């Protein structure tokens, strides 16, 4: 089965990357680097939420109700007006109070302003949920299997990019003091993941 990151890389590359970069007012290289950082962060946040309490069932119900994967069938149409989508609401559930911290960290890492990063996250969140919903349906995943799959995705990213995964973990950790060392991310990008969004 194709991994969630592979599905997202295939869906968001090519002309869609160009469209996203125009939407957020950035060049394609910077947008690609930001996406390669933001997508693992969103998946990691979903994994954390699904592993807590009744989080897996709540996520499963949300996917069944609102995210059947059809967004991937007309992604170009969605990208023409992503702010009309459910991105902000999704981010509220997924990142909660960590959203400003995530936006600030990704901004410093990529050189994009926080407004562009915020718009990027708003754009990516429904796409991630759509890809996750499609995976859930095709593999017939129950809440526990869904949580396990998200955990495996997060672990795979950590194996491929241990340094970057550590930075993502810091960005999601509300108990930290806000100082995140992102110099390595800014210097090297998300190596393997970043290649998905380079032409």
- Alpha-beta content class: mainly alpha
Euclidean distance between termini CA atoms = 25 Å
Shape: globular
Q: What portion of residues belong to β-strands?
A: under 5%
Largest sheet: none
Structure description:
The protein is mostly helical and 199 residues long. It has one domain (4-197). It contains twelve helices and no strands. Helix 3 packs antiparallel against helix 7 (99-110).
What are the salient characteristics of this protein?
0% strand, 199 residues, mainly alpha, single chain, 12 helices, 73% helix
Write a brief structural summary.
The chain contains 12 helices and no strands.
Q: What is this structure's SSE topology?
A:
Elements: H1 4-12, H2 14-24, H3 28-50, H4 55-66, H5 75-79, H6 87-94, H7 99-110, H8 114-139, H9 143-160, H10 162-172, H11 183-188, H12 191-194
């Amino acid at each position: 089965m194709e991994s969630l990151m592979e599905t997202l890389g295939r869906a968001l590359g090519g002309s869609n990357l160009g469209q996203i970069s125009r939407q957020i007012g950035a060049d394609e290289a910077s947008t690609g680097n930001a996406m390669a950082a933001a997508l693992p962060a969103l998946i990691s946040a979903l994994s954390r939420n699904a592993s807590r309490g009744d989080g897996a069932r709540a996520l499963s119900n949300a996917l069944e109700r609102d995210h059947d994967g059809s967004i991937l069938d007309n992604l170009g149409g969605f990208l023409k007006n992503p702010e009309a989508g459910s991105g902000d609401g999704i981010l509220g559930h997924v990142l909660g109070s960590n959203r400003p911290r995530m936006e600030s960290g990704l901004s410093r890492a990529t050189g994009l302003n926080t407004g562009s990063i915020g718009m990027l996250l708003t754009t990516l969140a429904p796409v991630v949920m759509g890809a996750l919903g499609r995976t859930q349906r095709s593999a017939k995943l129950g809440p526990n299997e869904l949580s396990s799959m998200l955990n495996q995705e997060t672990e795979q990213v950590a194996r491929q990019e241990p340094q970057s995964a550590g930075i993502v973990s810091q960005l999601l950790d509300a108990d930290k003091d806000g100082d995140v060392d992102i110099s390595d991310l800014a210097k090297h990008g998300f190596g393997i993941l970043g290649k998905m969004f380079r032409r």
